[in-house]
Amino acid sequence: MLARNSGAMILTLPSDREIVLSRVFNAPRRLVFEAWTNPEHVKQWYGCSMMMLLICEIDLRVGGVYRYVLRDAAGTQHATQGVYREITPPARLVYTEHYATAGFTSNDALVTVLFAEHDGMTTLTSTILHQSKADRDAQIATGMEGGAAETLDRLAALAADQHRRIAAA
């Protein structure tokens, strides 16, 4: 198993087909789950500084579709989308995911996101199960680790801010 740490996010490769991302958030899991699944919140944190989020659509129901489209500095659009297979608020999400950009579309992967709370802190664990080792390695080769770490940092800031506002009210 390979483990790498990008700041507060930990990336592991527990098998030839899996990528696991984990991060602890200073907020209860209901807030982290809400920030992960509500388009109004997702618009505030999804993506990284070198891209602009153009589209954020979430139909949060089993069989519902989500779609995020980002644009990079060169104007290239990058879409991530899939279908929700399981929704257990605020503990678990299972959905398919594939990525598409000009001239390339990935195979579907299966993503399982767990939200575990302990003493008001939430550990988010996202397991991406690819169809093959080649698919997993192709995702790693995109540099996704840095983008994922920055994106989760942005989510952490949003969740902590929401938690502070609720506690102060």
Overall mean pLDDT: 93
Euclidean distance between termini CA atoms:
44 Å
Query: How much of the residues is beta strand, in percent?
Result: over 45%
Shape: globular
Low-confidence stretches: 1-6
Radius of gyration: 15 Å
- Give the helix/strand class: alpha+beta
What's the assembly state of these chains? single chain
Q: Count every beta strand, where a strand is a DSSP E run of 2 or more residues.
A: 10
Pick out its properties.
169 residues, 10-stranded antiparallel beta sheet, 10 strands, 30% helix
Task: Compose a concise summary of this entry.
By secondary structure, this protein is of the alpha+beta class. It contains 4 helices and 10 strands, in the order E-E-E-H-H-E-E-E-E-E-E-E-H-H.
